[in-house]
Amino acid sequence: MGMCYFFRKKLLDFAEGRLPEREAQRLASHLDGCPVCRRELGDIRRGLEASGLYRPHEEGEVFWKKFDADLWSKIYERSAHRLPGAARRFILTPLWKPALAVLPLLVILFAVVMRTAPVLQLSRWMPESYQEAAVVRDAAWLVEEAFDEQALAAADEDITTEIETLYLLDPSAIQGIG
Amino acid sequence: MMSLIDVERSRECVRRFQGGEKAAFDELVQMYKRQAYGFVCSLIGNAEDAADILQEGFLRAYEGLARFRGEAGFKTWFYRILINLSRDTLRRRVRSRRIFSYSLDEEDDDRAVREVADATLRPDRLAQEEEWQNILRQAVAGLPDRQREAFSLHRLQGLKIEEVARVLGCGPATVKVHIFRAVRHIGRIIGPYMREC
Q1: Which DSSP state fits B156?
Q2: How many CA atoms lie within 13 A of A155 on its CB side?
Q3: How confident is the model at residue B179 (pLDDT cuts 50, 70, 90)?
Q4: How far, in Å, CA of A163 to CA of A173, rounded?
Q5: Which of residues 66-85 of B touch A (CB under 8 A)?
Q6: Which of A46, A64, A74 is the closest to B187 by Cβ?
Q7: Which of B57, B60, B85, B143 has a CA between 20 and 30 Å from the CA of residue A30?
């Protein structure tokens, strides 16, 4: 009885005739003296026999025609609701993960460049035509700024003169304004 | 059961589909639908749900076939989809209706035998083939999920132990144990009817 555990494992192979002859003989001699294993073997044989008699569900042609039609209409329906291939690939492809990892590095790099740009005088590395264009642009900007300042100063001067004139004509009006 | 020619044909269909020929999928559907339908029926014991599961399975296969790398055969891959869908359906069914809640562990086998036998033992009608098939289907439906899947794939669909192991994602030894228990359980349930017959 103590060997039942080991023999039971082989009952299915034995029932199906897949056990090597020597092992089959050993199991058969065990079965002679073990009613529990014999009963177990009986259950297995009946189970095998029953599974051989099992008849799978079958359907007629009408069912399968409807099935095919339904299936393809569902396939088309789902395909229509899906994103176009390129968009889907873009969204589904896990590009955002490496991009997210690189982003802080890019930020740091940008900060470093901004800090060191005046020191390194990066404009030196520009082609000459670019340098000339930059000088012209800077000069134009400076001239424009100078004109603006001059205009502002002139306007201020005009206003002061007007106020002085008004004061001389009617001092009370200016005092009223404060 | 699939022959080598069928396996090669399905591989060819997959290649054509991946090459852009969508019509090749229809060939796969025609090749597998009947067999797969029987398989799903044996898993969930309900023809109406089986048709829905099969359709959903084919839909998922259609959507995923472009990414299918062919390490396992199409059938193995497709059956895994069907098993997952069947498990979901059974889980929903158990949650919503709370039926078929046998606990068929080792020690509960005898109780299950008694329950099924008491519920449906009608010797006068056993001669009828349909009734017999119903009892058999009921016995298969009463198996725990893993045992039913392994039994169905191996005994009813004719897959080899290694293929079953690949579909179920476990080792061949585990599959053998599941099949052993399933066959024994069915033998115990069917036993009284066989003696009656």
Answers
A1: I
A2: 6
A3: very high
A4: 10
A5: none
A6: A46
A7: B143
Using CB atoms, which residue from B41, B180, B194 is nearest to A46? B194
List, in order, residues 6 or more apart from B3 with CB less than 8 Å away.
Answer: none
E strands within A121-176? none
Question: Taking CB atoms and an 8 Å cutoff, what residues of chain B touch A68?
Answer: 26, 29
Q: Whole-angstrom Cα distance, residue A50 to residue B187?
A: 7
Contact B180 A9 (CB under 8 A): yes
Each residue's pLDDT tens digit, B94-148: 776 654 444 444 445 555 544 444 444 454 555 567 787 888 888 888 889 899 9
Taking alpha carbons only, the member of B145, B154, B143 closest to residue B186 is B143
pLDDT, tens digit (0-9, with 9 covering 90-100), for A79-119: 777 666 666 666 666 677 788 888 999 999 999 888 877 77
| Assigned token pair, B110 | 């005898």
Residue to mutate among A46, A77, A89, A92, with most B CBs inside 10 A, is A46
- Enumerate residue ranges in chain A where pLDDT < 50: none
Rounded to an integer, what distance in angstroms lies between the CA atom of residue B52 and that of residue B71?
27
Q: What is the pLDDT of residue B102?
A: 47
Distance separating the N- and C-terminal Cα atoms of chain B: 30
Domain B4-97: which topology? Rna Polymerase Sigma Factor; Chain: A (1.10.1740)
What is the 8-class DSSP label of residue A174? H
Residue A83: φ, ψ to 5°: -70, 155
Cβ distance of A56 and B176 shorter than 8 Å: no
Q: Domain-by-domain residue ranges, chain B?
A: 4-97, 106-196
CA-nearest of B35, B144, B18 to B90 is: B144
Domain ranges of chain A: 4-53, 126-178
Is 1.10.10.10 the CATH number for B106-196?
yes
B136:A46 CB<8 A: no
CB contact under 8 A, A67 and B59: no
The answer, for B100 touching chain A at a CB cutoff of 8 Å, is no
Question: Residue A47 and residue B187: Cβ atoms within 8 Å?
Answer: yes
